[in-house]
Amino acid sequence: MHNAYSDLDGTAFWRTGVVDASPLAMAEIYKKRWTLEPDWKIATAGSCFAQHIAGYLMRNGYNILNVEPAPSALPEELRRRYGYSLYSGRYGNIYTSRQLLQLFQEVFGEASVAPIIWQRDGRFFDAYRPAVEPEGLPSADEVTQSRAYHLERLGVLFREMDVFVFTMGMTETWQDVETGQVVPIAPGVIAGEEHVARVALKNLSCEEVVADFREIMRILDAQRTKELRYILTVSPVPITATGSGLHVLAASSYTKATLRSAAGTLYQHHQAVDYFPGYEIVTNPSARGVFFEPNLRSVSAEGVDLTMRIFFSQQRPRQPTGGSDATEQDLLFLDEPACEEVLLDAFGP
């Protein structure tokens, strides 16, 4: 009997596509929407897992922009600690679509983004990227000056890039009740204990994530003169802690399901958006958790390597041309990504 499933190949069925398939050989799971060209300038951002993607792209010959390189005098072992060599800009981890939208609005003057400066032990921190200066700065004025330079460099980045790679990580964010702005981590974890009462949890819905990203696309279209493409991924790393009141497992499931649905919606409706299923590769049930470290959160080196091998089965590795803004010395993040979210473990029982 012939039906709608009769002519489909094995990847359309759970038994042949998952149960009988090796989790180490799933190249068919990703089919590129378009080919990354060797002269395209690529910018990267997102949650901690995105740091792996940037490193592998650069190591395989793609042109990764870096508009805020580390000072030459800064020792290599300190670059990552001070927010360098993680992404194309020194913005640290961007966990949510709302945080990303806010950054674009600030860079291009699309909305008033009030400064939020935290304190700890007489030092001052940029609340929008508190981890990039782990010891803080001597004054609020220096925070303001540092941020002004940061935003100026991002204006260059966002106008020059041809491809924007963004890894979605979380839906939970902390919103300042006085300004409406969001910060990447709750005050009091790194600094800003005096601001604890000023924030409330905001847990984004799928509709809000989609709307945020479409607004980002609108802003970029208005500011640029050349076509821009996007590669979206969802981080396979479970959340460390939740402020939602749910069990952390249920909260993490909500987060990943919401982000995956949002990424799928954007992929379906925008030809400029490609989706790479890194989340599915790592969390594949047939792998039986082998791609996670014993803490059941961190993705193992084998998991990262497999994920990127599948990516490059479609987007071919290229010979380095010497045209990248980044350098081999910038690949400090390949072993273990810098992730301030892990600090939340210290506040558990």
TL;DR?
With 349 residues, the chain is α/β, with parallel strands linked by helices.
Give an account of the 3D structure.
Helices cover 32% and strands 12% of the residues. The protein is α/β, with parallel strands linked by helices and 349 residues long. Strands 2-1-5-9-10 form a five-stranded parallel beta sheet, with helices on both faces. Strands 7-6-8 form a three-stranded antiparallel beta sheet, with helices on one face. The protein has a two-stranded antiparallel ribbon with strand order 3-4. Strand 9 (229-234), helix 7 (248-269) and strand 10 (273-275) form a beta-alpha-beta unit. Helix 4 (97-107) packs parallel to helix 6 and helix 6 (206-223) packs across helix 7 (248-269). The termini are far apart.
